[in-house]
């Protein structure tokens, strides 16, 4: 039998007393032989190679070696590295080891080899590391905004609000879009039919659970949480799930411009919240559904209809090769350009172009100082005044104007690019941040509890911030090493996966398709035959 070796990986790094495993491809030249692929175990004792079980006959195509029926199973076996015993059927002649005249004995054929050593860290793990670290940065930024006041004792803006005000939440929204792109990859390009319906239904369940958790956090009354808005975001993104990247990029200016225009047009007609000082709960959302939906979509602090800008861009970014150094540089560069350009345009329109004077003339209810304060710190209420269209030129935090949305988008994309660039080579220094970023929903909820209990000194925000960061990192490391995913993340993931499996399974699947069972029609036919007999 002639063997032609198609690939020969390096020997595994094991001790001389242990066997080494390498994969070989051999094919037979005649019809009396079968074509197979098998990993080969070469023992150090010179007893020859031990062929393990190969998949059935495979055909050569443009994409490589394929099996008509169970190619997916073979791919999973190759990824897992599992090896089982070979059954040689229809093979004539001894199997020889390359470079040695010693045949493979029949006794060696019955031996079962050991599993291969686990592969090194893949690009998938490095990709997850960078995304998780970016999530940790976004979480730390949102905690800093809640812990620090907007102004110092001397009336100057604090560094925490100046850096993270609105930008940290935007980064979190962009990363939500990246996570949705990761969900798309599970379908391996088969985003159509029942597979697409199953993924979209799982996304609906994920959004409803996040919305429910956010409304439960509203009972704490500590801060205005972003979680309910994110739940609505997941619901809004369902029609966009599986769409092309070009379609998503075309939707970005529609949401970035059309959303603020609708918000400005209907600002005076929007229903008022029953209590502006407390967050939404299950009771208030169900008792005032119109107000709740309006705030979630347009009038709230994080209006989901406008924030679809971040999610759409995040999905497009998540579809790219996040381990690419070039991509990280592109994100960091173009994000910085977008953030700087929108900031400059706003300053130009409100300054030399006379925008501030027009705001003062069109808004007599506010003094010049109050208008300048809103242009710096954001609206006092949830929506800027609607006295003139010049208010849409503002770029202040949480103003949700077109320039503010694009500015925050650029800052978030630049931050993600910088983090991906720093974590390109990996490193243990990022492990605590990655563990923290892998359970942001759980840790954000814990932060809400800490704010409600008021156990930290508000007059010492730096100490309060570091205590929470260190405590959350330690908890995340211990939990991940002992349990795995965060508790809230586990609930949401398991529920969405269960729905995906239920919806993705064909309803007309009969019992005969389950191993060990027969079709219902076959049982009825057999019973009818016995009765006739």
UniProtKB/TrEMBL annotation:
Q: Which UniProt keywords apply?
A: Membrane, Transmembrane, Transmembrane helix
Entry's transmembrane regions: 160-183, 226-242, 247-266, 296-317, 329-350, 405-422, 429-450, 462-479
Enumerate the spans annotated as Heparan-alpha-glucosaminide N-acetyltransferase catalytic domain: 127-324
Would the keyword Zinc-finger be found if you checked this record's keyword annotation? no
The family database entries (InterPro entries) matched by this protein are listed as: HGSNAT_cat
Record's compositionally biased regions (Basic and acidic residues): 510-533
Residues covered by region (Disordered): 37-80, 503-533
| Source domain of life | Bacteria
Q: Any idea what this protein is called?
A: Heparan-alpha-glucosaminide N-acetyltransferase domain-containing protein
UniProt organism field:
Arthrobacter halodurans
């Amino acid at each position: 039998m002639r063997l032609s070796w198609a690939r020969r990986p390096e020997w595994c790094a094991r001790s001389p007393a242990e066997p080494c495993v390498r994969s070989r491809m051999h094919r037979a030249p005649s019809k009396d032989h079968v074509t197979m692929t098998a990993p080969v175990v070469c023992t150090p004792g010179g007893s020859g190679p031990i062929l393990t079980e190969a998949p059935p006959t495979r055909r050569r195509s443009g994409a490589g070696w394929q099996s008509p029926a169970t190619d997916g199973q073979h791919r999973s076996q190759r990824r897992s590295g599992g090896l089982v015993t070979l059954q040689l059927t229809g093979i004539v002649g001894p199997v020889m080891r390359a470079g040695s005249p010693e045949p493979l004995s029949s006794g060696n054929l019955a031996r079962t080899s050991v599993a291969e050593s686990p592969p090194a860290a893949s690009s998938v793990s490095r990709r997850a590391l960078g995304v998780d670290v970016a999530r940790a940065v976004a979480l730390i930024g949102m905690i800093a905004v809640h812990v620090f006041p907007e102004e110092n004792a001397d009336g100057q803006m604090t560094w925490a609000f100046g850096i993270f005000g609105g930008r940290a939440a935007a980064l979190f929204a962009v990363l939500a879009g990246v996570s949705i792109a990761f969900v798309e990859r599970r379908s391996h390009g088969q985003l159509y039919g029942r597979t697409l319906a199953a993924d979209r239904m799982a996304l609906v369940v994920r959004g409803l659970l996040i919305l429910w958790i956010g409304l439960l956090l509203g009972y704490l009354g500590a801060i205005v949480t972003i979680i309910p808005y994110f739940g609505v975001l997941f619901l809004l993104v369902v029609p966009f799930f599986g769409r092309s990247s070009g379609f998503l990029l075309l939707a970005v200016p529609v949401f970035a411009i059309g959303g603020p225009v609708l918000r400005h047009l209907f600002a005076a007609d929007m229903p008022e919240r029953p209590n502006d000082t407390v967050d939404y709960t299950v009771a208030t959302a169900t008792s005032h559904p119109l107000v709740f939906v309006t705030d979630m979509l347009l009038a709230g602090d994080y209006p989901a209809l406008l924030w679809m800008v971040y999610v759409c861009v995040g999905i497009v970014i998540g579809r790219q090769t996040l381990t690419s150094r070039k991509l990280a540089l592109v994100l960091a560069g173009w994000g910085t350009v977008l953030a700087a350009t929108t900031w400059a345009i706003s300053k130009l329109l409100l300054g030399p172009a006379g925008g501030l004077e027009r705001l003062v003339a069109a808004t007599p209810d506010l003094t010049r100082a109050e208008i300048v304060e809103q242009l710096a710190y954001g609206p006092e209420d949830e929506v800027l005044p609607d006295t003139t269209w010049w208010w849409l030129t503002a770029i202040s935090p949480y103003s949700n104007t077109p320039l503010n949305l694009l500015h925050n988008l650029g800052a978030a994309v630049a931050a993600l690019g910088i983090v991906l660039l720093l974590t390109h080579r990996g490193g243990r220094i990022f492990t605590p941040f990655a563990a923290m970023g892998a359970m942001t929903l759980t840790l954000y909820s814990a932060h809400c509890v800490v704010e409600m209990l008021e156990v930290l000194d508000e007059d010492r925000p730096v100490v309060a911030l570091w205590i929470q960061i260190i405590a959350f990192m330690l908890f995340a490391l211990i939990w991940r090493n002992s349990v795995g995913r965060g508790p809230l993340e586990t609930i949401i993931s398991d529920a969405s996966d269960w729905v995906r499996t239920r919806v993705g399974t064909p309803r007309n699947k009969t019992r005969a398709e389950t191993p060990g069972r027969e079709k219902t029609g076959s049982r009825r036919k057999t019973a009818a035959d016995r009765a006739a007999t």
